[in-house]
């Protein structure tokens, strides 16, 4: 049962990582005028992505120094997610194969 919870947590962290990567790619496409933000559907989609990720970026942005026009908070968050996934997998292995 506990192993299933670890698997669900890992899945959620993977999905969050892909959401962050997608948001970064979309922001680049908007910055280079590949996508037009006048589209109502695109604005709604971007708003939903912002509502999902902004609460996670905010504490990182408070701590990190200003790098001009470059926002490194998605990269830092992806690193934190990867560290959490490694910790979860280590705990799952320890639970599955306890030391004798």
In brief:
This protein is mainly α. It has three helices and no strands.
Which helices and strands appear, and what pairs or packs with what?
Elements (H helix, E strand, L loop, with lengths): L1 H30 L8 H24 L9 H24 L4
Helix pairs in contact: 1-2, 1-3, 2-3
Note the quaternary state here: single chain
Low-confidence stretches: none
Please, how many helices?
3
Order of helices and strands: HHH
Mean pLDDT: 93
Proportion of helical residues: over 70%
Word description of this protein:
It is a single chain. The chain is an all-alpha fold and 100 residues long. The chain has one domain (10-92). The protein contains three helices and no strands. α1 (2-31) packs antiparallel against α3. It is elongated and about 60 Å long. The mean pLDDT is 93.
Name the features.
100 residues
């Amino acid at each position: 049962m506990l192993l299933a919870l670890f698997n669900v947590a890992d899945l959620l962290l993977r999905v969050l990582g892909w959401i962050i990567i997608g948001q970064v790619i979309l922001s680049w496409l908007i910055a280079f005028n590949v996508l037009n933000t006048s589209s109502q559907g695109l604005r709604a989609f971007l708003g939903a992505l912002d509502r999902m990720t902004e609460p996670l970026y905010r504490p990182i942005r408070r701590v990190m120094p200003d790098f001009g026009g470059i926002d490194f908070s998605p990269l830092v968050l992806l690193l934190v997610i990867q560290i959490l996934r490694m910790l979860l997998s280590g705990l799952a292995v320890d639970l599955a194969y306890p030391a004798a």
